[in-house]
């Protein structure tokens, strides 16, 4: 159906990634104004990293491809970390497609679901695609409209541009007096290229322009904007090894005004960088190892001096692993993660402010089951172990099932 696209898929598909932006557009949603709906502990990011496919550095565009990709695992006794993408498109005899796309994920503001129904134009070889999608809900004021354009000039290069209009009909369909003075708009651009020498370069940028939201009944107004970008590079250093670098950054500013007075201001900065060495080529055993550095800063400038800090996090993680082809359909992929975390956090409603500085470690004994050789469908089972306190670190299942 998509000859050129199928050839490229083997290069770009991966399981879900711990990232904000790599998984597709991150449009504004009103629930963000309520703040993060879960607590980040000292182990939160280590748990999420251990529940991802490894090696870390790889080109990925699976959020826009047919299939089921995702991960789910227990991060706390009462919480699951879930990233799930499910998409199916149907190509007609005429140059047209229809499709459905479901995404369950989380970001730094909380958990969310998006269910998109779409249709559009695609040419014979799938190198050009233009589509319109909608996140259709029961309330018309909650409907998001999404325009997508995909272009693949060669088998080794692709571009994808997405425009999202969240709550597109909110002002005319809402039940109360609230309204957008400046409507939210998201622009997401992703691209990737594979060069003749085996190098791969890929990246994304996501821009949520500043929106203004008014609630006259409460005499308050909100503004919110967010920018993020990421870049990845894979470089073969020999016939057996390649070096990978993947980095992303995010900046956000949210303000709440009570009349003319600034009541709340959240400034957020997030970055995540991995430097990784991977084996390459057909080998009985594959190896990888790397260093990851993650930072998160969240501040409320309206609070009193010394209390403005909401979250200050630095994490350095060394990780290494191997993949052994034990049976034709089974790969054993044990990995070790050793992290040093320095974290301080306090919010007005916190009874126990976060203050931690120390070593965290996890053993990640993944068993990878290859279910369908032609499509590459696989399931990974991952019962992790926390080495810093010698306890069970949470079970995890990852799926990678192209349709």
What is the structure about, briefly put?
By secondary structure, the chain is mainly β.
What features would you describe in this structure?
The chain is mainly beta and 403 residues long. 5% of the residues lie in helices and 62% in strands. It has an 18-stranded antiparallel beta barrel. The termini are close together. Keywords: Signal. Residues 1-19 form the signal peptide.
Topology summary:
Blueprint: H1 3-12, H2 44-50, E1 67-76, E2 79-91, E3 96-107, E4 110-122, E5 128-135, E6 144-154, E7 157-165, H3 170-173, E8 179-182, E9 186-194, E10 200-215, E11 220-236, E12 241-258, E13 261-279, E14 285-300, E15 309-327, E16 330-345, E17 354-372, E18 377-386, E19 391-402
């Amino acid at each position: 159906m998509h000859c050129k696209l199928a050839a490229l898929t083997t290069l770009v598909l991966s399981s879900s990634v711990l990232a904000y932006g790599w998984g597709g557009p991150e449009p504004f949603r009103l629930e963000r104004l309520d703040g993060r709906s879960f607590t980040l502990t000292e182990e939160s990011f280590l748990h999420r990293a251990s529940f991802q496919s490894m090696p870390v550095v790889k080109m990925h565009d699976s959020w826009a491809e047919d299939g089921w990709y995702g991960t789910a695992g227990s991060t706390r006794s009462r919480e699951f970390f879930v990233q799930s993408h499910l998409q199916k498109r149907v190509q007609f005899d005429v140059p047209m497609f229809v499709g459905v796309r479901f995404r369950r994920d989380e970001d730094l503001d909380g958990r969310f679901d998006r269910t998109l129904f779409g249709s559009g134009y695609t040419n014979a070889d799938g190198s050009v695609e233009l589509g319109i999608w909608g996140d259709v809900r029961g309330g018309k004021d909650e409907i998001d409209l999404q325009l997508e354009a995909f272009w693949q000039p060669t088998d080794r290069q692709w571009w994808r541009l997405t425009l999202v209009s969240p709550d597109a009909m909110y002002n005319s369909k809402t039940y109360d007096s609230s309204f957008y003075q400046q409507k939210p708009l998201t622009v997401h651009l992703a691209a990737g290229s594979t060069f003749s020498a085996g190098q791969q370069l890929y990246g994304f940028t996501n821009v949520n322009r500043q929106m203004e939201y008014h609630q006259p009944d409460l005499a308050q107004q909100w503004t919110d904007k967010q920018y993020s970008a990421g870049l990845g590079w894979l470089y073969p250093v020999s016939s057996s090894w390649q070096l990978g670098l993947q980095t992303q950054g995010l900046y956000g500013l949210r303000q709440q005004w009570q009349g003319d007075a600034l009541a709340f201001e959240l400034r957020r900065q997030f970055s995540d960088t991995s430097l990784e060495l991977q084996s390459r080529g057909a080998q009985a055993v594959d190896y990888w190892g790397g260093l990851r550095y993650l930072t998160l800063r969240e501040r409320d400038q309206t609070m009193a001096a010394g209390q403005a800090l909401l979250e200050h996090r630095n994490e350095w993680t060394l990780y290494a692993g191997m993949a052994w082809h034990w049976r034709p359909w089974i790969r054993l992929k044990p990995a070790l993660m050793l992290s040093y975390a320095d974290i301080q956090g306090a919010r007005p409603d916190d009874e126990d402010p976060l203050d931690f500085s120390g070593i965290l470690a996890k053993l990640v004994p993944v068993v990878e089951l290859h279910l369908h050789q032609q499509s590459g469908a696989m399931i990974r089972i991952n019962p992790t172990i926390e080495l810093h306190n010698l306890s069970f670190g949470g079970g995890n299942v990852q799926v990678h099932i192209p349709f």
